[in-house]
Hints:
10 strands, eight-stranded mixed beta sheet, 5 helices, 28% strand, alpha+beta, single chain, two-stranded antiparallel ribbon, 211 residues
Amino acid sequence: ASATSVVVKLKDYGLDLIEVQDNGNGIEEKNFQALAMKHYTSKLERFDDMTALSTFGFRGEALSSLCAVSHVNVQTATDSEGVGRDLLYNINGVLVSNKPCAAEKGTVVKVSKLFFNMPVRNKELQKNKKREFNKLVALLQGYCMVRPDVHFSIIHIPKSSSKRLVLKTKGGARTTMEQAISTVFGPKLVKTITKIQQKEVDETGSIDDED
């Protein structure tokens, strides 16, 4: 969605709330109804689009799965609309509420009461919430590496103390992967990294050099 900033907020390690906010293009109104329905995507309009995909994942898988096990709320705004929309989806991914709201350009997805309807899974998550939180941080650290141009932040709000900034990267078009690694893991690790060069042979037999 052309976002240059992604902020992830969690309350009580994600048990109470997981919120992801970006400053991308926002979601157009024509996509509201199908946003959380199974197998829906805005990436494909015709079969040939399958050969031109540049990113992984489909909203119709992630959001619909979240709707089935949590309460999902989406706030989004585009340049053309001038006002944001507050969208609420039910357990089947059906849009049940669409209200105007104050919102900056981009999208905020809020997931609350995770596994509210699955007591065994909920209990397991409560028992291992710190471990699952660390997995989430590790996943986002990987995103920081492959997209050093995007500003990432992770904020954790524990139940019994004030919010804590877990991770923050600079972002920006001039930020290199080495700088992102230094920010996330520290400058000492950068000194131990060895750059490798990948060589690929094209259909004509020529070798293309890629870093």
